[in-house]
Amino acid sequence: MPLPTPAAAEPGPVVALMYHALHTGSTPDGQDPHYTLGTDEFELQMREVAACGGGSSADALLQGRSQARILVTFDDGHASNHALALPILSRHGITADFFINPATVGTAGFLDWHQLRQMADAGMSIQSHGYDHVYLTQLDDHHLRQTLAAAREEIEQQVGAPVTLLAPPGGRMPKNLLAIARECGYTHVLSSEPGVLAAAEGASRPLPRMAMTAATRHVTFQRWIRRDHVAIGHERLRYRGLALAKRMLGDTGYERVRAGALAVLGRRA
Fold first, then answer.
1. 3-class secondary structure per residue, the chain
2. For residue range 162-221, what is the model confidence (pLDDT) as tens digits?
3. Does the model's pTM come out above 0.70?
4. Spatial CA neighbour of 138 closest among 168, 114, 100, 164
5. b/e map 231-254, b = 16+ CB within 10 Å
6. Amino acid 253: pLDDT
7. Where do the domains of the chain lie?
8. What confidence score (pLDDT) does residue 246 get?
């Protein structure tokens, strides 16, 4: 049974939620069903975020423009971010970071620059997800610098707002990513690793986020936004198991196994 709507969060640690895409009945082509939530569930979640004192983008918090204890972020730049997520966020007075790849902007199923500028005008933060969604662990230092700099510069030019945050595609982070990201003009890196962050978090480590998936139960979401250390600790253990599998199988092997598992689950649904 779901917990009651949490009361407004007290000052303290911050939880960042990581979304990808939304749907209104079935997952559109090109969106990962595991990372696609229904709009009804997202609406309910944002209503509860608003009841907890509100949510904001990581950019607003790190720049001192927000005191929210719940951050909302989206990766990949799917078209549903504008069509479905933006109206819900605006209705509840919540801002969010949208991490995009310039190479996919304007392609089928993804946001275009006009939509991204509309989102920025509505108070949303448009940030970098790398240039073309290639895992950053597959790049040498030279190409890593190239792709990070090119992504930041193109987004800034097209949207007209500073780009200071980086969320690596697939959460894959080479060991020297923080240093190279700073060289390329980024102040913070947001990871896919679960956890909480301090309100005045520095840039010395990647900032953790809680991945919101189609399988995330509502009671789990409620515990996360209440910063329940047991629930968040459980998710950290699960993440470490997946991280071990990724290291053992490699990126290609892990993606192949994951795709097969999702296909089997889809046939059973």
1. CCCCCCCCCCCCCEEEEEECEEECCCCCCCCCHHHEEEHHHHHHHHHHHHHCCCEECHHHHHCCCCCCCEEEEEECCECHHHHHHHHHHHHCCCCCEEEECHHHCCCCCECCHHHHHHHHHCCCEEEECCCCCCCHHHCCHHHHHHHHHHHHHHHHHHHCCCCCEECCHHHCCCCCHHHHHHHCCCCEEECCCCCCECCCCCCCCCECCEECCCCCCHHHHHHHHCCCHHHHHHHHHHHHHHHHHHHHHHHHHHHHHHHHHHHHHHHHC
2. 999 999 999 999 999 999 999 999 999 999 999 998 755 566 789 999 999 999 999 999
3. yes
4. 168
5. bbeebeeebeeeeeebeeeeeeeb
6. 61
7. 15-268
8. 63
- Residue 206: which of 221, 220, 193 has the closest Cα? 193
User: What does the pLDDT look like over 2-33, one tens digit per residue?
Assistant: 555 544 444 579 999 999 999 998 888 778 99
CA pair distance 258, 49, nearest whole angstrom: 31
Cβ atoms 132, 92 nearer than 8 A: no
Cβ atoms of 101 and 130 closer than 8 Å: yes
Q: How far is CA 113 from CA 13, 95, 125, 153, 160, in A?
A: 34, 19, 13, 14, 11
> Closest Cα to residue 201, out of 12, 50, 52?
12
| CATH topology assigned to domain 15-268 | TIM Barrel (3.20.20)
Assign 252 to helix, strand or coil: helix
pLDDT of residue 27: 81
Say if CB 80 and CB 96 are below 8 A apart: no
Q: Are 82 and 100 a contacting pair, CB within 8 Å?
A: no
Strand partners, 17: 72, 210
Q: So what's the pLDDT on residue 2?
A: 54
